[in-house]
Amino acid sequence: MKLGLAARTSAIALAASLAAASAASAQTSVETLRDTIFVTGTKKANAEDVQDVPLAITAYGEDQIDALKVRDLQSLSYSIPNVSFDDVGTTRGVANFSIRGLGINSSIPSIDPTVGVFVDGVYLGINGGVVLDIFDLESIEVLRGPQGILFGRNVTGGAVLLNSKRPSDEFEASFKGAAESGLNGGGPNYYAMAGVGGPIIEDILKARVSVYYNKDEGYFRRYLGGPVPNLIAAGAFGAAAPLVATSGPDAFEDFGAAETWMIRPSLSFTPSDNFELLLRYEHFDSEGDGPAGQNHTNGAGVTNPFFSAPRDSFDFSIDEPGFYETKRDAVTAEMNWNVGFGDGVITNIFGWRKGTSDTQSDIDATPLFLFHAGSTTDQDQLSNELRYAGRFFDRIDLTVGGYWFTQDLLYNETRQIPLAAISSGSPYFSGGGVQDQVTYAAFGQADIDLAENFTLILGGRWTYEKKEVVISNLLANRGFPFCDVRIPGDCSEDFVDEDSWKNFTGKVGFEWRPIDDLNVYAHYTQGVRSGGYNFRNTSAASLPFVANPAPPPAIVPNPAFDPLFLPGPFDEEKVNAFEVGFKAQPAEGKAVVNAAFFVNDVSDMQRELNLTDPIAGVVQVITNTADATIWGFELEAQIAFTDNFLFQGSLGHTQGEYDDLLFDIGAPAVSPGVVDEADLNLEIPRLAPWTYGAGFIYSWDLGETGSVDARFRYYHRDASFYTDNNLGTLNPYDAIDASVSLTTFDNRATISLYGKNLLNEVQFGGDTQLPGSLGGGSFAPLQKGRIVGIELQLATN
């Protein structure tokens, strides 16, 4: 095969020669981490050394992923500067990713993410089912900054590329098993994954099958029983409010159980040296407990009288354990065809993905039945990308292509709020929305070598998108049984609309290589985040008409109606991004130092305003709230002081401010207020000022016996605000990860002892403020703390 096809099909891991070398002798972790990593994020005909890419990008090959014990994207949340891969926690696996301060704070599936996740080149259309377990990968690439030119969907924060392992030319098999615990009294957690593959028909047909299983017995300890105020137990709120305390003696039980399994068969067909067809199928099935929701004193200083825990503890007490059930199937077909024109490659990537998710959560996070919520999400997406990449006149790298994406999306939500029955009737709420959308795009980028050491970069993308929705306000569908938006007419369809958006985004930049092992670059890039609609419509002010129960019953105009609270359409979010950086490999390649400085000018920033409400509990208003400027810098370094000792460090800083506010982001739920200086002085959510880390890897060569590798890493992330009104906050984070591994039997077996978050720091997926009608406080889903484990890895060479 030509280099273009061979390089792409290697999927960014190590070159075949490195794999062969490791077969002859055990390769230490220091050697592994110093290996060249090839990336495909630039979508050129040939994969590129990550150090030659004029872009802020952090990449991990298969061996680096193993060394870091990465099993989900959240594992990388603190090792990359200015990056946060958080799980929102309300529903397991829902991504609230943020890069350089651009992120989302919601589990609403109709919101387009700021950080796009692409699996084997296929964009994931919603943020659900993203932070779940990953396995059998050849590489992970994290691209920081807007990726509005080469990727299927415009994203303003960045892109995460996951590349699964391909069938190999030779037979290979691998197994990895692990057992871990939090040492906190909770249950153990077990992992097992295996893969086998190789040629079926030599040089023509190859196959691989990978399987994964995880059994988590529950990391947390849920407190049962607990004190209940007498006025609640006595029914002081009336018979219409059936508040029930948890029965039984005060006790603890394991909580957070989950069971997950996946299977991924793949097939590679190469009838000639110039053509390859790669087919992948994946089935995913996961179920478990609902969120470990902690109620603690909120940002307004209100402590819930029914239960409150210190926010630096893992204490919590809920009466509803909740659940989640997620199933997903996906098919990817990738074609690579080497052509003589420009010595290039024609690539076509087709993707289909269909999934469902059902959840139930205790939102009040107390041992009383105050606010429980459930949801159902159905998603079905199709996409196709066709592109060409080649090189002309030995000085122009050209990539051009077209993209098509369509998605059917459905979301049901139910709420049970007994206290709401006191003032306004039924405690049962239901509603949601359905959405059909389609996207078309054409894109191109040319890297023009104006001189031997200077390249001009020009790119552009034209995009058209249309969305059609039917949305049912939860307040307009009160009563039992719950309505179902999947059944036409079953819910009150109070909002029916469609809208479309067209945009052109451009890129201009340069790459300058003044000396060997130094790459200086700068670029201006535009990014656009799609406009859309809010499926979680719980605002009374968004209803033009309401029911009047007084005789004669009638539908009358709503005096509180305000078009600012309609569920859409909100407009696109636009980012003009400037980045200057360098990548250096001094000391004859023994050191790698990368740095970048960036400025993001954000217009029509999309935000999910999280507001308390005495009837609905919480109202989320999605709108274009502000124009803002975010700037900062990043530094990553890797230094081999000796052949056996490797230092790694990172430093990131972000700072931002609102330039203009389009909406009162501190307003109460009932009506918008006045934008004033206090609003402009609020901090942008998820903008952690400082992220940094440092660590080392030390390897001992034991000769024929093998090698021992020790790894230590310290991470820090500053506290940041969760809500736009700055009442919800996310804790600062200081963590230590460490591991010791023995590799033996000619590199075929590795046994590791590892620890993560050894300081047992407390982190939350969110910090949603609760109304005084529910006692106040905050709903904050806990993330896991300290974990220690043992892992065994076996592989053929």
Which SSEs are present, and which pair or pack?
Layout: H1 3-9, H2 16-24, H3 29-34, E1 38-39, E2 48-49, E3 57-61, H4 62-67, E4 83-87, E5 95-99, E6 102-103, E7 115-119, E8 122-123, E9 137-144, E10 158-164, E11 172-181, E12 189-201, E13 205-216, E14 220-224, H5 230-233, E15 251-255, E16 258-272, E17 275-288, E18 293-296, E19 323-339, E20 344-362, E21 372-392, E22 396-416, H6 420-424, E23 428-451, E24 454-472, E25 495-512, E26 518-529, E27 545-548, E28 554-557, E29 573-584, E30 591-613, E31 617-640, E32 645-661, H7 677-680, E33 690-701, E34 706-717, E35 720-721, E36 729-730, E37 733-744, E38 749-756, E39 768-769, E40 778-781, E41 787-795
Parallel strand pairs: 7-10
Antiparallel strand pairs: 1-2, 3-9, 4-5, 5-6, 7-8, 9-10, 11-12, 11-41, 12-13, 13-16, 14-15, 16-17, 17-19, 18-40, 19-20, 20-21, 21-22, 22-23, 23-24, 24-25, 25-26, 26-29, 27-28, 29-30, 30-31, 31-32, 32-33, 33-34, 34-37, 35-36, 37-38, 38-41, 39-40
